[in-house]
Specification:
Order of helices and strands of chain B: HHHHHHHHHHHHHH
Low-confidence stretches of chain A: 1-15
Structural class of chain A: mainly alpha
Number of strands of chain B: 0
Mean pLDDT of chain B: 84
Largest interface: A-B, 47 and 56 residues
Order of helices and strands of chain A: HHHHHHHHHHHH
Helix content of chain A: 55-70%
Largest sheet of chain B: none
Low-confidence stretches of chain B: none
Number of helices of chain A: 12
Distance between the termini of chain A: 33 Å
Number of helices of chain B: 14
Radius of gyration of chain A: 24 Å
Mean pLDDT of chain A: 83
Oligomer: heterodimer
Structural class of chain B: mainly alpha
Radius of gyration of chain B: 24 Å
Strand content of chain A: under 5%
Strand content of chain B: under 5%
Protein backbone atom coordinates (compact mmCIF):
# COMPACT_ATOMS: atom_id res chain seq x y z
CA UNK A 1 0.00 0.00 0.00
CA UNK A 2 1.14 3.52 -0.64
CA UNK A 3 2.15 5.45 2.46
CA UNK A 4 0.79 8.99 2.53
CA UNK A 5 3.32 11.70 3.28
CA UNK A 6 1.33 13.40 6.03
CA UNK A 7 -0.79 10.77 7.72
CA UNK A 8 -4.07 12.30 8.79
CA UNK A 9 -5.89 11.06 11.85
CA UNK A 10 -9.14 10.75 9.96
CA UNK A 11 -9.71 8.03 7.35
CA UNK A 12 -9.84 9.34 3.80
CA UNK A 13 -13.39 10.00 2.64
CA UNK A 14 -14.57 6.92 0.82
CA UNK A 15 -17.30 7.24 -1.77
CA UNK A 16 -20.05 4.86 -0.79
CA UNK A 17 -23.25 4.45 -2.75
CA UNK A 18 -25.37 6.33 -0.22
CA UNK A 19 -27.88 9.10 -0.72
CA UNK A 20 -25.08 11.69 -0.84
CA UNK A 21 -23.52 10.18 -3.98
CA UNK A 22 -26.90 9.88 -5.64
CA UNK A 23 -27.74 13.50 -5.00
CA UNK A 24 -24.27 14.39 -6.23
CA UNK A 25 -25.02 12.61 -9.50
CA UNK A 26 -28.37 14.35 -9.74
CA UNK A 27 -26.65 17.67 -9.14
CA UNK A 28 -24.08 16.91 -11.86
CA UNK A 29 -26.91 16.07 -14.25
CA UNK A 30 -28.76 19.31 -13.42
CA UNK A 31 -25.54 21.25 -13.95
CA UNK A 32 -25.07 19.56 -17.33
CA UNK A 33 -28.59 20.50 -18.43
CA UNK A 34 -28.06 24.07 -17.18
CA UNK A 35 -24.91 24.42 -19.33
CA UNK A 36 -26.67 22.82 -22.30
CA UNK A 37 -29.70 25.13 -22.34
CA UNK A 38 -27.39 28.13 -22.51
CA UNK A 39 -26.09 26.95 -25.87
CA UNK A 40 -28.11 28.47 -28.72
CA UNK A 41 -27.26 25.62 -31.11
CA UNK A 42 -28.64 23.05 -28.63
CA UNK A 43 -31.87 25.05 -28.20
CA UNK A 44 -32.36 25.49 -31.95
CA UNK A 45 -31.83 21.75 -32.46
CA UNK A 46 -34.33 20.82 -29.76
CA UNK A 47 -36.89 23.32 -31.07
CA UNK A 48 -36.76 21.90 -34.62
CA UNK A 49 -37.09 18.32 -33.37
CA UNK A 50 -40.03 19.26 -31.11
CA UNK A 51 -41.83 20.85 -34.09
CA UNK A 52 -41.44 17.66 -36.16
CA UNK A 53 -42.44 15.40 -33.26
CA UNK A 54 -45.59 17.48 -32.71
CA UNK A 55 -46.39 17.26 -36.45
CA UNK A 56 -45.83 13.51 -36.36
CA UNK A 57 -48.12 12.98 -33.36
CA UNK A 58 -50.94 15.34 -34.30
CA UNK A 59 -50.67 14.62 -38.03
CA UNK A 60 -53.94 14.95 -39.93
CA UNK A 61 -55.56 16.84 -37.05
CA UNK A 62 -53.45 19.94 -37.73
CA UNK A 63 -52.67 19.73 -41.48
CA UNK A 64 -54.57 22.26 -43.62
CA UNK A 65 -55.62 19.53 -46.12
CA UNK A 66 -55.90 15.75 -46.26
CA UNK A 67 -52.30 14.62 -46.92
CA UNK A 68 -53.33 11.36 -48.60
CA UNK A 69 -56.20 12.31 -50.90
CA UNK A 70 -55.86 14.97 -53.55
CA UNK A 71 -58.36 16.52 -55.88
CA UNK A 72 -56.69 15.08 -58.98
CA UNK A 73 -55.61 18.60 -59.82
CA UNK A 74 -52.00 17.76 -60.68
CA UNK A 75 -49.08 20.10 -59.96
CA UNK A 76 -50.01 23.58 -58.80
CA UNK A 77 -47.31 26.10 -57.81
CA UNK A 78 -47.25 27.56 -54.28
CA UNK A 79 -50.11 29.99 -53.69
CA UNK A 80 -52.02 31.36 -50.71
CA UNK A 81 -54.39 28.37 -50.83
CA UNK A 82 -51.50 25.84 -51.01
CA UNK A 83 -48.43 27.45 -49.43
CA UNK A 84 -46.06 24.73 -50.70
CA UNK A 85 -48.10 23.95 -53.85
CA UNK A 86 -49.55 20.54 -54.75
CA UNK A 87 -47.89 17.33 -55.95
CA UNK A 88 -48.53 15.27 -59.11
CA UNK A 89 -51.75 13.84 -57.63
CA UNK A 90 -52.98 17.23 -56.46
CA UNK A 91 -52.17 16.54 -52.81
CA UNK A 92 -51.16 19.49 -50.63
CA UNK A 93 -47.35 19.43 -50.25
CA UNK A 94 -47.40 21.31 -46.91
CA UNK A 95 -49.76 18.74 -45.38
CA UNK A 96 -47.63 15.87 -46.70
CA UNK A 97 -44.40 17.42 -45.39
CA UNK A 98 -46.07 17.81 -41.97
CA UNK A 99 -47.01 14.14 -41.68
CA UNK A 100 -43.87 13.01 -43.54
CA UNK A 101 -41.80 13.04 -40.37
CA UNK A 102 -43.82 10.19 -38.87
CA UNK A 103 -42.10 7.10 -40.30
CA UNK A 104 -38.53 8.37 -40.21
CA UNK A 105 -38.94 9.53 -36.58
CA UNK A 106 -39.87 5.98 -35.61
CA UNK A 107 -37.47 4.03 -37.83
CA UNK A 108 -34.33 6.16 -37.35
CA UNK A 109 -34.31 6.26 -33.50
CA UNK A 110 -34.99 2.50 -33.32
CA UNK A 111 -32.09 1.82 -35.69
CA UNK A 112 -29.83 4.12 -33.65
CA UNK A 113 -30.84 2.46 -30.36
CA UNK A 114 -30.26 -1.01 -31.79
CA UNK A 115 -26.85 0.00 -33.16
CA UNK A 116 -25.75 1.64 -29.90
CA UNK A 117 -27.01 -1.26 -27.73
CA UNK A 118 -25.24 -3.94 -29.75
CA UNK A 119 -22.22 -1.71 -30.32
CA UNK A 120 -21.68 -0.72 -26.69
CA UNK A 121 -22.03 -4.34 -25.57
CA UNK A 122 -19.35 -5.36 -28.09
CA UNK A 123 -17.18 -2.38 -27.18
CA UNK A 124 -17.39 -3.12 -23.44
CA UNK A 125 -16.46 -6.77 -23.97
CA UNK A 126 -13.62 -5.95 -26.37
CA UNK A 127 -12.15 -3.21 -24.21
CA UNK A 128 -12.41 -5.06 -20.91
CA UNK A 129 -11.33 -8.58 -21.81
CA UNK A 130 -8.72 -7.60 -24.45
CA UNK A 131 -6.68 -10.56 -25.65
CA UNK A 132 -8.03 -13.09 -28.12
CA UNK A 133 -11.69 -11.94 -27.97
CA UNK A 134 -10.63 -8.39 -28.72
CA UNK A 135 -8.34 -9.40 -31.59
CA UNK A 136 -11.03 -11.46 -33.31
CA UNK A 137 -13.82 -8.92 -32.81
CA UNK A 138 -11.55 -6.05 -33.89
CA UNK A 139 -10.87 -7.79 -37.20
CA UNK A 140 -14.61 -8.28 -37.76
CA UNK A 141 -15.28 -4.63 -36.88
CA UNK A 142 -12.56 -3.62 -39.37
CA UNK A 143 -14.25 -5.68 -42.10
CA UNK A 144 -17.64 -4.09 -41.33
CA UNK A 145 -16.07 -0.63 -41.58
CA UNK A 146 -14.91 -1.44 -45.12
CA UNK A 147 -18.51 -2.16 -46.13
CA UNK A 148 -20.20 0.70 -47.97
CA UNK A 149 -23.29 1.19 -45.74
CA UNK A 150 -25.79 2.28 -48.40
CA UNK A 151 -24.73 -0.43 -50.84
CA UNK A 152 -24.88 -3.24 -48.27
CA UNK A 153 -28.25 -1.98 -47.06
CA UNK A 154 -29.41 -2.03 -50.69
CA UNK A 155 -28.20 -5.62 -51.09
CA UNK A 156 -29.79 -6.81 -47.83
CA UNK A 157 -33.11 -5.11 -48.54
CA UNK A 158 -33.18 -6.74 -51.97
CA UNK A 159 -32.57 -10.14 -50.38
CA UNK A 160 -34.99 -9.77 -47.46
CA UNK A 161 -37.56 -7.48 -49.06
CA UNK A 162 -38.26 -3.89 -48.02
CA UNK A 163 -40.07 -3.30 -44.76
CA UNK A 164 -39.54 -0.87 -41.91
CA UNK A 165 -38.43 -3.69 -39.60
CA UNK A 166 -35.73 -4.81 -42.03
CA UNK A 167 -34.56 -1.20 -42.45
CA UNK A 168 -34.22 -0.85 -38.65
CA UNK A 169 -32.21 -4.07 -38.41
CA UNK A 170 -29.96 -3.43 -41.40
CA UNK A 171 -29.08 0.13 -40.41
CA UNK A 172 -28.73 -0.80 -36.71
CA UNK A 173 -26.41 -3.74 -37.36
CA UNK A 174 -24.29 -1.74 -39.81
CA UNK A 175 -23.87 1.02 -37.20
CA UNK A 176 -22.96 -1.33 -34.32
CA UNK A 177 -19.25 -1.82 -35.27
CA UNK A 178 -18.69 1.94 -35.46
CA UNK A 179 -20.18 2.35 -31.96
CA UNK A 180 -18.18 -0.63 -30.71
CA UNK A 181 -14.94 1.06 -31.75
CA UNK A 182 -15.80 4.29 -29.89
CA UNK A 183 -16.93 2.51 -26.71
CA UNK A 184 -13.91 0.17 -26.80
CA UNK A 185 -11.45 3.06 -26.75
CA UNK A 186 -13.38 4.70 -23.88
CA UNK A 187 -13.26 1.42 -21.91
CA UNK A 188 -9.53 0.99 -22.57
CA UNK A 189 -8.71 4.19 -20.68
CA UNK A 190 -11.17 3.36 -17.86
CA UNK A 191 -10.01 -0.17 -17.12
CA UNK A 192 -6.61 1.00 -15.90
CA UNK A 193 -8.14 3.23 -13.22
CA UNK A 194 -8.03 2.36 -9.53
CA UNK A 195 -11.75 1.82 -9.09
CA UNK A 196 -11.65 -1.09 -11.53
CA UNK A 197 -8.67 -2.62 -9.74
CA UNK A 198 -10.50 -2.15 -6.44
CA UNK A 199 -13.57 -3.96 -7.77
CA UNK A 200 -11.37 -6.79 -9.07
CA UNK A 201 -9.67 -7.11 -5.67
CA UNK A 202 -13.09 -7.20 -4.01
CA UNK A 203 -13.67 -10.27 -6.13
CA UNK A 204 -16.48 -8.87 -8.29
CA UNK A 205 -17.41 -10.77 -11.43
CA UNK A 206 -16.47 -9.45 -14.86
CA UNK A 207 -20.13 -8.91 -15.68
CA UNK A 208 -20.63 -6.81 -12.53
CA UNK A 209 -17.54 -4.69 -13.20
CA UNK A 210 -18.61 -4.11 -16.81
CA UNK A 211 -22.23 -3.21 -16.09
CA UNK A 212 -22.06 -1.46 -12.71
CA UNK A 213 -18.54 0.02 -12.60
CA UNK A 214 -17.28 0.73 -16.11
CA UNK A 215 -20.53 1.28 -18.03
CA UNK A 216 -21.75 4.27 -15.93
CA UNK A 217 -18.37 5.90 -16.54
CA UNK A 218 -18.46 5.52 -20.33
CA UNK A 219 -22.10 6.66 -20.46
CA UNK A 220 -21.01 10.13 -21.66
CA UNK A 221 -19.41 9.01 -24.94
CA UNK A 222 -22.21 6.46 -25.39
CA UNK A 223 -24.91 9.13 -25.18
CA UNK A 224 -22.99 11.31 -27.64
CA UNK A 225 -22.65 8.31 -29.94
CA UNK A 226 -26.41 7.70 -29.68
CA UNK A 227 -27.25 11.23 -30.85
CA UNK A 228 -24.65 11.10 -33.61
CA UNK A 229 -25.98 7.71 -34.79
CA UNK A 230 -29.54 9.09 -34.69
CA UNK A 231 -28.46 11.78 -37.14
CA UNK A 232 -26.76 9.24 -39.41
CA UNK A 233 -29.78 6.94 -39.17
CA UNK A 234 -32.05 9.70 -40.53
CA UNK A 235 -29.44 10.35 -43.22
CA UNK A 236 -29.32 6.66 -44.19
CA UNK A 237 -33.05 5.91 -43.95
CA UNK A 238 -33.86 8.99 -46.05
CA UNK A 239 -31.30 7.96 -48.66
CA UNK A 240 -32.65 4.39 -48.79
CA UNK A 241 -36.20 5.71 -49.19
CA UNK A 242 -34.98 7.97 -51.97
CA UNK A 243 -33.39 4.94 -53.67
CA UNK A 244 -36.75 3.15 -53.45
CA UNK A 245 -35.78 0.38 -51.00
CA UNK A 246 -36.61 2.11 -47.71
CA UNK A 247 -40.08 3.18 -46.69
CA UNK A 248 -42.71 2.26 -49.26
CA UNK A 249 -45.69 4.14 -50.77
CA UNK A 250 -48.22 5.42 -49.76
CA UNK A 251 -46.02 6.67 -46.88
CA UNK A 252 -45.66 10.46 -47.13
CA UNK A 253 -42.01 9.99 -46.08
CA UNK A 254 -39.76 12.87 -47.16
CA UNK A 255 -37.12 10.76 -48.92
CA UNK A 256 -39.80 8.84 -50.76
CA UNK A 257 -41.56 12.09 -51.81
CA UNK A 258 -38.30 13.43 -53.23
CA UNK A 259 -37.79 10.17 -55.10
CA UNK A 260 -41.27 10.32 -56.64
CA UNK A 261 -41.06 13.93 -57.72
CA UNK A 262 -37.41 14.74 -58.51
CA UNK A 263 -37.79 13.91 -62.22
CA UNK A 264 -40.19 16.86 -62.55
CA UNK A 265 -37.55 19.37 -61.42
CA UNK A 266 -36.15 19.69 -64.93
CA UNK A 267 -39.60 20.84 -66.11
CA UNK A 268 -39.54 23.59 -63.48
CA UNK A 269 -41.81 21.80 -60.97
CA UNK A 270 -39.51 22.22 -57.97
CA UNK A 271 -41.91 22.57 -55.03
CA UNK A 272 -42.90 18.93 -54.36
CA UNK A 273 -39.15 18.07 -54.26
CA UNK A 274 -37.60 21.07 -52.55
CA UNK A 275 -39.86 21.22 -49.47
CA UNK A 276 -39.48 17.57 -48.34
CA UNK A 277 -35.73 17.92 -49.07
CA UNK A 278 -35.54 20.98 -46.82
CA UNK A 279 -37.49 19.08 -44.14
CA UNK A 280 -34.88 16.28 -44.19
CA UNK A 281 -32.09 18.86 -44.07
CA UNK A 282 -33.66 20.67 -41.08
CA UNK A 283 -34.06 17.44 -39.11
CA UNK A 284 -30.56 16.06 -39.63
CA UNK A 285 -28.99 19.45 -39.00
CA UNK A 286 -31.03 19.79 -35.78
CA UNK A 287 -29.95 16.36 -34.52
CA UNK A 288 -26.32 17.14 -35.33
CA UNK A 289 -26.49 20.49 -33.53
CA UNK A 290 -27.73 18.61 -30.44
CA UNK A 291 -25.01 15.98 -30.78
CA UNK A 292 -22.34 18.63 -31.24
CA UNK A 293 -23.43 20.58 -28.14
CA UNK A 294 -23.60 17.40 -26.05
CA UNK A 295 -20.12 16.44 -27.19
CA UNK A 296 -18.51 19.76 -26.39
CA UNK A 297 -20.30 20.09 -23.03
CA UNK A 298 -19.32 16.58 -21.95
CA UNK A 299 -15.71 17.12 -23.04
CA UNK A 300 -15.31 20.27 -20.96
CA UNK B 1 9.16 0.26 -43.96
CA UNK B 2 8.98 -3.02 -45.91
CA UNK B 3 7.87 -4.86 -42.78
CA UNK B 4 5.27 -2.21 -42.12
CA UNK B 5 3.83 -2.59 -45.63
CA UNK B 6 3.91 -6.40 -45.44
CA UNK B 7 2.06 -6.38 -42.13
CA UNK B 8 -0.57 -3.96 -43.44
CA UNK B 9 -1.08 -6.07 -46.60
CA UNK B 10 -1.55 -9.23 -44.56
CA UNK B 11 -4.16 -7.54 -42.36
CA UNK B 12 -5.90 -6.22 -45.48
CA UNK B 13 -6.17 -9.79 -46.80
CA UNK B 14 -7.80 -10.95 -43.56
CA UNK B 15 -10.24 -8.03 -43.75
CA UNK B 16 -11.04 -8.91 -47.36
CA UNK B 17 -11.79 -12.51 -46.41
CA UNK B 18 -14.11 -11.37 -43.59
CA UNK B 19 -15.78 -8.88 -45.93
CA UNK B 20 -16.47 -11.62 -48.47
CA UNK B 21 -17.83 -13.83 -45.69
CA UNK B 22 -20.23 -11.12 -44.48
CA UNK B 23 -21.48 -10.59 -48.03
CA UNK B 24 -21.87 -14.37 -48.47
CA UNK B 25 -23.94 -14.55 -45.28
CA UNK B 26 -26.21 -11.76 -46.53
CA UNK B 27 -26.76 -13.30 -49.97
CA UNK B 28 -26.78 -17.03 -49.16
CA UNK B 29 -27.55 -17.61 -45.50
CA UNK B 30 -30.17 -14.91 -44.75
CA UNK B 31 -32.61 -16.02 -47.49
CA UNK B 32 -33.41 -19.69 -47.05
CA UNK B 33 -34.36 -19.98 -50.72
CA UNK B 34 -32.41 -17.80 -53.14
CA UNK B 35 -34.59 -18.72 -56.14
CA UNK B 36 -37.74 -17.78 -54.24
CA UNK B 37 -36.16 -14.47 -53.19
CA UNK B 38 -35.45 -13.58 -56.81
CA UNK B 39 -38.75 -14.74 -58.32
CA UNK B 40 -41.04 -13.56 -55.54
CA UNK B 41 -43.83 -15.30 -53.59
CA UNK B 42 -46.14 -15.97 -56.55
CA UNK B 43 -43.81 -17.89 -58.86
CA UNK B 44 -44.62 -21.62 -59.31
CA UNK B 45 -42.40 -24.00 -57.34
CA UNK B 46 -41.03 -25.72 -60.51
CA UNK B 47 -39.70 -22.39 -61.85
CA UNK B 48 -38.05 -21.67 -58.48
CA UNK B 49 -36.44 -25.14 -58.44
CA UNK B 50 -35.23 -24.72 -62.01
CA UNK B 51 -33.65 -21.36 -61.16
CA UNK B 52 -31.96 -22.78 -58.04
CA UNK B 53 -30.62 -25.61 -60.22
CA UNK B 54 -29.29 -23.18 -62.82
CA UNK B 55 -27.70 -20.85 -60.23
CA UNK B 56 -26.32 -23.72 -58.21
CA UNK B 57 -28.07 -22.36 -55.13
CA UNK B 58 -29.53 -25.79 -54.24
CA UNK B 59 -26.06 -27.12 -53.39
CA UNK B 60 -24.89 -27.44 -49.76
CA UNK B 61 -24.01 -24.11 -48.15
CA UNK B 62 -20.36 -25.03 -47.50
CA UNK B 63 -19.71 -25.82 -51.16
CA UNK B 64 -21.29 -22.52 -52.16
CA UNK B 65 -19.06 -20.72 -49.63
CA UNK B 66 -15.86 -22.31 -50.96
CA UNK B 67 -17.06 -21.49 -54.46
CA UNK B 68 -17.62 -17.83 -53.56
CA UNK B 69 -14.13 -17.58 -52.05
CA UNK B 70 -12.67 -19.11 -55.21
CA UNK B 71 -14.60 -16.48 -57.13
CA UNK B 72 -13.02 -13.76 -54.99
CA UNK B 73 -9.49 -15.04 -55.69
CA UNK B 74 -10.04 -15.38 -59.44
CA UNK B 75 -12.11 -12.16 -59.55
CA UNK B 76 -14.96 -14.11 -61.12
CA UNK B 77 -18.19 -13.15 -59.37
CA UNK B 78 -20.40 -15.00 -61.84
CA UNK B 79 -22.72 -13.83 -64.60
CA UNK B 80 -25.36 -11.14 -64.34
CA UNK B 81 -28.91 -12.46 -63.89
CA UNK B 82 -30.09 -9.78 -66.31
CA UNK B 83 -27.60 -9.59 -69.18
CA UNK B 84 -25.94 -12.99 -68.70
CA UNK B 85 -22.51 -11.37 -69.09
CA UNK B 86 -19.70 -11.60 -66.55
CA UNK B 87 -20.31 -9.00 -63.83
CA UNK B 88 -16.74 -8.11 -62.85
CA UNK B 89 -15.77 -6.18 -66.04
CA UNK B 90 -19.10 -4.33 -65.91
CA UNK B 91 -18.54 -3.29 -62.29
CA UNK B 92 -14.99 -2.14 -63.04
CA UNK B 93 -16.23 -0.05 -65.97
CA UNK B 94 -18.91 1.53 -63.79
CA UNK B 95 -16.42 2.24 -60.99
CA UNK B 96 -14.18 3.93 -63.55
CA UNK B 97 -16.97 6.28 -64.66
CA UNK B 98 -17.92 7.00 -61.05
CA UNK B 99 -14.26 7.62 -60.19
CA UNK B 100 -14.30 10.58 -62.61
CA UNK B 101 -17.17 12.10 -60.64
CA UNK B 102 -15.72 11.20 -57.23
CA UNK B 103 -12.27 12.48 -58.26
CA UNK B 104 -13.69 15.84 -59.28
CA UNK B 105 -15.58 16.03 -55.96
CA UNK B 106 -12.38 15.36 -53.99
CA UNK B 107 -10.43 17.80 -56.16
CA UNK B 108 -12.91 20.53 -55.24
CA UNK B 109 -13.35 19.68 -51.59
CA UNK B 110 -9.84 18.80 -50.31
CA UNK B 111 -8.03 22.13 -50.86
CA UNK B 112 -11.01 24.25 -49.76
CA UNK B 113 -11.66 22.16 -46.62
CA UNK B 114 -8.00 22.06 -45.54
CA UNK B 115 -7.67 25.81 -46.07
CA UNK B 116 -10.86 26.43 -44.07
CA UNK B 117 -9.72 24.09 -41.27
CA UNK B 118 -6.30 25.79 -41.00
CA UNK B 119 -7.91 29.23 -41.03
CA UNK B 120 -10.39 28.21 -38.31
CA UNK B 121 -7.62 26.75 -36.12
CA UNK B 122 -5.54 29.96 -36.35
CA UNK B 123 -8.63 31.97 -35.29
CA UNK B 124 -9.83 29.56 -32.65
CA UNK B 125 -13.06 30.52 -30.84
CA UNK B 126 -13.39 33.76 -32.81
CA UNK B 127 -16.45 34.39 -35.02
CA UNK B 128 -14.74 33.09 -38.19
CA UNK B 129 -13.88 29.81 -36.46
CA UNK B 130 -17.40 29.42 -35.04
CA UNK B 131 -18.88 30.08 -38.48
CA UNK B 132 -16.67 27.47 -40.18
CA UNK B 133 -17.37 24.84 -37.51
CA UNK B 134 -21.13 25.47 -37.63
CA UNK B 135 -21.15 25.43 -41.44
CA UNK B 136 -19.18 22.18 -41.37
CA UNK B 137 -21.58 20.48 -38.94
CA UNK B 138 -24.57 21.66 -40.95
CA UNK B 139 -23.32 20.74 -44.42
CA UNK B 140 -21.88 17.36 -43.49
CA UNK B 141 -25.14 16.19 -41.92
CA UNK B 142 -27.31 16.72 -45.01
CA UNK B 143 -27.63 13.68 -47.32
CA UNK B 144 -26.08 14.06 -50.78
CA UNK B 145 -29.37 13.68 -52.59
CA UNK B 146 -30.87 16.56 -50.58
CA UNK B 147 -27.89 18.83 -51.34
CA UNK B 148 -28.12 17.69 -54.97
CA UNK B 149 -31.84 18.49 -55.14
CA UNK B 150 -31.38 21.95 -53.66
CA UNK B 151 -28.50 22.63 -56.10
CA UNK B 152 -30.60 21.52 -59.08
CA UNK B 153 -33.51 23.74 -58.05
CA UNK B 154 -31.40 26.83 -57.30
CA UNK B 155 -28.38 26.67 -59.64
CA UNK B 156 -29.86 24.56 -62.44
CA UNK B 157 -33.52 25.51 -62.75
CA UNK B 158 -33.87 28.98 -61.19
CA UNK B 159 -30.52 30.48 -62.19
CA UNK B 160 -29.86 28.24 -65.19
CA UNK B 161 -26.07 28.37 -64.73
CA UNK B 162 -25.24 24.67 -65.04
CA UNK B 163 -26.79 21.68 -66.84
CA UNK B 164 -29.10 19.59 -64.61
CA UNK B 165 -27.96 16.26 -66.08
CA UNK B 166 -24.49 14.84 -65.57
CA UNK B 167 -23.82 13.17 -68.90
CA UNK B 168 -22.36 15.38 -71.60
CA UNK B 169 -23.00 14.60 -75.29
CA UNK B 170 -20.63 11.87 -76.53
CA UNK B 171 -18.61 14.25 -78.70
CA UNK B 172 -18.06 16.86 -75.99
CA UNK B 173 -14.54 18.03 -75.12
CA UNK B 174 -13.02 17.71 -71.64
CA UNK B 175 -14.10 21.17 -70.46
CA UNK B 176 -17.73 20.56 -71.43
CA UNK B 177 -17.63 17.20 -69.68
CA UNK B 178 -16.36 18.85 -66.50
CA UNK B 179 -19.11 21.47 -66.81
CA UNK B 180 -21.69 18.68 -66.84
CA UNK B 181 -20.04 16.88 -63.91
CA UNK B 182 -19.62 20.04 -61.85
CA UNK B 183 -23.01 20.12 -60.12
CA UNK B 184 -23.11 16.45 -59.01
CA UNK B 185 -19.49 16.75 -57.87
CA UNK B 186 -20.40 19.88 -55.95
CA UNK B 187 -23.28 18.05 -54.22
CA UNK B 188 -20.77 15.54 -52.84
CA UNK B 189 -17.99 18.07 -52.19
CA UNK B 190 -20.33 20.06 -49.93
CA UNK B 191 -21.04 17.02 -47.74
CA UNK B 192 -17.35 16.13 -47.29
CA UNK B 193 -16.25 19.72 -46.61
CA UNK B 194 -17.45 19.47 -43.00
CA UNK B 195 -15.58 16.28 -42.09
CA UNK B 196 -12.25 17.31 -43.59
CA UNK B 197 -12.38 20.90 -42.33
CA UNK B 198 -13.22 19.80 -38.78
CA UNK B 199 -10.47 17.18 -38.73
CA UNK B 200 -7.88 19.66 -40.06
CA UNK B 201 -8.97 22.22 -37.47
CA UNK B 202 -8.74 19.73 -34.56
CA UNK B 203 -5.33 18.43 -35.70
CA UNK B 204 -3.92 21.93 -36.18
CA UNK B 205 -5.16 23.18 -32.80
CA UNK B 206 -3.47 20.25 -31.09
CA UNK B 207 -0.15 20.85 -32.86
CA UNK B 208 -0.27 24.62 -32.29
CA UNK B 209 -0.34 23.89 -28.53
CA UNK B 210 2.60 21.48 -28.70
CA UNK B 211 5.93 22.36 -27.09
CA UNK B 212 7.87 22.07 -30.34
CA UNK B 213 5.64 24.70 -31.95
CA UNK B 214 6.34 27.08 -29.09
CA UNK B 215 10.06 26.32 -29.36
CA UNK B 216 10.00 27.06 -33.08
CA UNK B 217 8.26 30.38 -32.51
CA UNK B 218 10.56 31.30 -29.65
CA UNK B 219 13.71 30.69 -31.64
CA UNK B 220 12.44 33.40 -33.98
CA UNK B 221 10.70 31.66 -36.87
CA UNK B 222 7.76 33.55 -38.31
CA UNK B 223 4.30 31.99 -37.96
CA UNK B 224 4.36 31.18 -41.70
CA UNK B 225 7.68 29.33 -41.44
CA UNK B 226 6.51 27.46 -38.36
CA UNK B 227 3.31 26.43 -40.07
CA UNK B 228 5.14 25.15 -43.15
CA UNK B 229 8.03 23.37 -41.41
CA UNK B 230 6.56 22.12 -38.15
CA UNK B 231 2.80 22.39 -37.92
CA UNK B 232 1.38 21.16 -41.23
CA UNK B 233 3.26 17.86 -41.39
CA UNK B 234 1.87 16.77 -38.02
CA UNK B 235 -1.49 18.50 -38.12
CA UNK B 236 -2.56 16.91 -41.39
CA UNK B 237 -2.03 13.30 -40.26
CA UNK B 238 -5.61 12.84 -39.00
CA UNK B 239 -6.89 14.70 -42.07
CA UNK B 240 -5.24 12.15 -44.38
CA UNK B 241 -6.93 9.37 -42.43
CA UNK B 242 -10.35 10.99 -42.68
CA UNK B 243 -9.97 11.61 -46.43
CA UNK B 244 -9.21 7.91 -46.95
CA UNK B 245 -12.35 6.92 -45.07
CA UNK B 246 -14.33 9.43 -47.15
CA UNK B 247 -13.18 7.76 -50.38
CA UNK B 248 -15.12 4.69 -49.24
CA UNK B 249 -18.20 6.68 -48.23
CA UNK B 250 -17.99 8.64 -51.48
CA UNK B 251 -19.02 5.51 -53.36
CA UNK B 252 -22.01 5.05 -51.04
CA UNK B 253 -23.29 8.58 -51.45
CA UNK B 254 -22.62 8.53 -55.18
CA UNK B 255 -25.54 6.13 -55.73
CA UNK B 256 -28.10 8.78 -54.81
CA UNK B 257 -26.23 11.55 -56.63
CA UNK B 258 -26.07 9.51 -59.85
CA UNK B 259 -29.80 8.90 -59.58
CA UNK B 260 -30.58 12.62 -59.23
CA UNK B 261 -28.31 13.65 -62.10
CA UNK B 262 -28.98 10.60 -64.24
CA UNK B 263 -25.28 9.65 -64.49
CA UNK B 264 -24.34 6.20 -65.67
CA UNK B 265 -21.80 4.99 -63.13
CA UNK B 266 -21.50 2.67 -60.17
CA UNK B 267 -24.66 4.05 -58.57
CA UNK B 268 -26.95 3.51 -61.55
CA UNK B 269 -25.46 0.07 -62.17
CA UNK B 270 -26.11 -0.99 -58.57
CA UNK B 271 -29.59 0.55 -58.51
CA UNK B 272 -30.50 -1.25 -61.75
CA UNK B 273 -29.14 -4.48 -60.26
CA UNK B 274 -31.19 -3.94 -57.09
CA UNK B 275 -34.38 -3.38 -59.07
CA UNK B 276 -33.80 -6.65 -60.96
CA UNK B 277 -32.51 -8.62 -57.96
CA UNK B 278 -29.24 -9.18 -59.79
CA UNK B 279 -27.34 -10.63 -56.80
CA UNK B 280 -23.97 -11.36 -58.52
CA UNK B 281 -23.79 -7.75 -59.70
CA UNK B 282 -24.60 -6.37 -56.22
CA UNK B 283 -22.13 -8.76 -54.57
CA UNK B 284 -19.34 -7.75 -56.94
CA UNK B 285 -20.22 -4.10 -56.34
CA UNK B 286 -20.00 -4.36 -52.54
CA UNK B 287 -16.69 -6.25 -52.69
CA UNK B 288 -15.09 -3.93 -55.27
CA UNK B 289 -16.07 -0.86 -53.21
CA UNK B 290 -14.73 -2.64 -50.11
CA UNK B 291 -11.43 -3.14 -51.92
CA UNK B 292 -11.39 0.52 -53.00
CA UNK B 293 -11.89 1.50 -49.35
CA UNK B 294 -9.12 -0.81 -48.17
CA UNK B 295 -6.67 0.43 -50.81
CA UNK B 296 -7.50 4.02 -49.86
CA UNK B 297 -6.88 3.39 -46.15
CA UNK B 298 -3.68 1.50 -47.00
CA UNK B 299 -2.36 4.42 -49.04
CA UNK B 300 -3.40 6.77 -46.23
CA UNK B 301 -1.48 4.66 -43.70
CA UNK B 302 1.62 4.81 -45.89
CA UNK B 303 1.31 8.58 -46.29
CA UNK B 304 0.80 8.94 -42.54
CA UNK B 305 3.84 6.75 -41.79
CA UNK B 306 5.88 8.89 -44.18
CA UNK B 307 4.63 12.11 -42.58
CA UNK B 308 5.20 10.97 -39.01
CA UNK B 309 8.02 8.45 -38.26
CA UNK B 310 6.50 7.72 -34.84
CA UNK B 311 3.52 5.96 -36.49
CA UNK B 312 5.95 3.93 -38.61
CA UNK B 313 8.01 2.81 -35.60
CA UNK B 314 4.93 2.13 -33.49
CA UNK B 315 3.54 -0.16 -36.17
CA UNK B 316 6.81 -2.04 -36.62
CA UNK B 317 7.14 -2.89 -32.97
Amino acid sequence: MVESIAPSPLPAPVATPTTSTISERARARRELIRVLVRRPSFLIGIAVIVVWVVCAILGERITPYDPFNGFFGGHKPPSTAHLFGTDRLGRDVLSRVMVGSRDVLIVAPLAAILGVTVGSFLGLVMGYYRGFVDDVLSRIVEAFLALPVILVALLTLVVLGSSSVVVVFVVGILFAPIVARTVRSAVLSERQLDYVTAAKLRGESGLFILSREIFPNVLGPTVVELTVRFGYAIFTVATLSFLGVGLQPPSPDWGLSVSQEYANMVAGVWWPTLFPALAIASTVVAVNLIADSLQSVLNE
Amino acid sequence: MARFIARRLLLALVTLWLLATIVFIITNVLPNDVGRTILGPFAPQETVDALNERLGTNRPILIRYVDSLRGLVTLDFGDSFVSGKEVFPQVIGAVGRSAKLAGLALLITIPISIAAGLYAARRRDRPADRAIVLLGVTLSSIPEFVTGTILVVVVGVQLGWLPVLATAPATADVLTQIRFLLMPALAMAIVYFGYIARMTRAGTIEVLQADYTRTALMKGLTIGQTMRRHVLRNALVPTVAVIAVQVGYLFGGIIAVEKIFNYNGMGSTMLFAAQHKDLPMLTAGVIVIGIVYMVATLIADLIMAWMNPRIRLEAER
